[in-house]
Specification:
Two copies of one chain form a homodimer. By secondary structure, chain A is of the alpha+beta class. Chain A is 31% helix and 34% strand. In chain A, helix 4 links the parallel strand 4 and strand 5.
Chain lengths: 154, 154
Amino acid sequence: MDSKEVTFRMATEKDLDSIIQMLSDDVLGSTRERYEQPLPDSYLQAFKSIDSDPNNELVVACYKEEIVGVQQITFIPYLTYQGGWRATIEGVRTAPAVRGKGIGRKLIEWAIERAKERGCHIVQLTTDKKRKDALHFYEQLGFKATHEGMKFHI
Amino acid sequence: MDSKEVTFRMATEKDLDSIIQMLSDDVLGSTRERYEQPLPDSYLQAFKSIDSDPNNELVVACYKEEIVGVQQITFIPYLTYQGGWRATIEGVRTAPAVRGKGIGRKLIEWAIERAKERGCHIVQLTTDKKRKDALHFYEQLGFKATHEGMKFHI
């Protein structure tokens, strides 16, 4: 494949099956997701919540007719930094068949450009310390691991 | 002061001056914020964006007539974890006069309860690695530093 032919757009409900398949086909996702037919309704409900919120964007990378990558960007207004907006990236995944082709890099670069358009001053994300390659990947893109990412499971 | 008398509520525009004063009176915030009269308009604009968004809540801790703590909670729908919602906490601050009185703990406990009410399965936050005490504080509350918190300044 030629990664120059990869395009990016907002996800639609029709993409949901491909997206959930990608989320499931992942070392951590495989223990958390349920990719089955029909898809559990909770995925559709979450998609609708994301899709109807102007501060959430679910972005897919497409190669020809195929969905080969996904990420979610959330735009958040904060009082800190004199009332600055931030973009939070989450759920970045690429299809196994296209790994190593630079799709992940293009996804994040796309998110940074989108964050600029939206007037954000910071792009942020957390990455599981178990994903050893991911830290290096994000550092190469200019991210700095200045913070601890802390989770509390209810 | 008796911390049992501390109450929590959504912030209003009238609280903005006290909140910005707290954000500025902080080792990292002092280099980032501009607490002056009149307040820079960017704070008011950010407040309005937060206040009008049902997925963002700016919460203040009050003791008698005074604002003694603040935090922002953002509720985000995700496809991951079978379409689970998360609560992200940011901008947690307490007034210098009340530090060590358990107000910070009560703020976070309040956020966790609120996250439960909103059907979230994870409460998450990032804390600057320079804030040595904060990591321990959040760990005591049950948070685990499983992730790297990565920032990209535009």
